[in-house]
Each structure stands twice: as structure tokens, then as C-alpha cells.
Amino acid sequence: PGQSQEVQAENVTVLEGGTAEITCHLHRYDGSIVVIQNPARQTLFFNGTRALKDERFELAEFSRRRLRLRLARARLDDEGGYFCQLYADDTHHQIATLTVLVPPEEPQVEAAALAVEGGEVELTCLVPRARPLATLRWYRDRRELPGDSRHRQVGKVFWQSSVLRLRVERRDHGAIVTCEATHPALGRGQRRLTQYQLDVQYPPSARIHPSQSVLREGDTLVLTCATNGNPR
């Protein structure tokens, strides 16, 4: 009994649109029938011969030690358990689970309304498509700001947003706020960033120069009036 044939499968993770390799390891293989089936239990390859017309699947290796199934242009509906079945005296099978990740694009940042001095501005950072959920963070001058996150599932992917509310003064005009998305599909240390420049409207103020000076009769006095406002 200890010398019977066995098959072992490895779980695989792939990015949407990428290429996945599903490997079935064969132990003490003596040439028995080997079948690979997709999650719908349709046979993809029967002893090395293609059984399903899907050219994205290719048998990259079929040896006495292993079977390697290559899948190109992976889609979300390819996800699930792939069956490696060995038909000997005992039917033996193992399942390789394929997981498809969808990395986020650059986040979209929008303002709900004009920012006015003394008021509150509401910024929304949006990631319309990711799987699993991305992590969204707000930063200003390298300091993290608290956002209100929400999400919903649309089919197999997630739509998500984070809302940032800031009270603004005229000194905030031109400041840069950043929304950052991190995700398992992006790799260690990688992230997607979108910057937003605050446009704060404030009323004009006037300054007259010089504000005071001592003059003698006959001197020429030049006064400069400077105004500052947004919009100008």
C-alpha cells in the first residue's frame, strides 16, 4: 500500500490578465490515466490530449514526475478548484485552487463642492475595481488623515471609496492631499497614489503701503494698494 501512485497539487495565485501555472506532482507514476478538470468539472486534458476547446489552456509539461497546466490571460471566472485525477487501482485526486487577484488602478479623487475659507471640504477617493479590497489612506505633509471608508461587492470585484472631510482656511490654498491605495496584488512596498491640490476660495483683503510715514510739505507720497483673494 505504501507504494501506490499518488498525485499532489499546488495552489496558485495570479493577477487578472496574467499567466498561471497549475502543477500536479506525480509520485510512483506508472503510466496510468491522468485527467485535469476545471472548476466546472469539464475535462481540460485527458492523458495529455486536449479535451476542451479553450486555447488559453496549454499542457506545458507531461512527464512521469509532473503535469504543468499553463493558463494565459487569466479571468475571474477561471478561479476555483482544478482537479488532478489519477486513475489507477484506486482513483486518486487532489485539488489545486486558483485565485485571481485584481489590482486597483490609480485612485480617483473628487471634491463634492468648492472649498471656501472657514468651511469644510469633502474629498472622495474612489477605487472602482479591485479584488480583494484595497486599503485606502489619506496623507497631507506625510501625516495620515482619518477617512470614512465604505465598499460594496459588484460581481466578483469590489467598489470602494474613502471620504475625507477637512476644515479649510486661506493658508490651505494650494496644499497637496494624497490618496494612497495598497493591495496584495501590487507587491511589497508598491502603491497607487493620486494627489489633489486644494483650491480654497477666500474674499480679497487690501493693504496700503506705506501704512504710515512722516512727510514734509512738498514731499511726494506714493501709496500702493495690494489686494489678495481667490479667485482674483
Automatic annotation (TrEMBL):
Places the protein is found: Membrane
Record GO terms (molecular function): vascular endothelial growth factor receptor 2 binding
Keywords, sorted A to Z: Disulfide bond, Immunoglobulin domain, Membrane, Repeat, Signal, Transmembrane, Transmembrane helix
GO cellular component, one term: cell-cell contact zone
Ranges that cross the membrane: none
Domain Ig-like as annotated: residue spans: 107-194, 204-232
Major localisation: membrane
Membrane topology designation: Single-pass membrane protein
Pfam family of the protein (one): C2-set_2
Stated name of the protein: CADM4 protein
Biological source species: Cinclus mexicanus
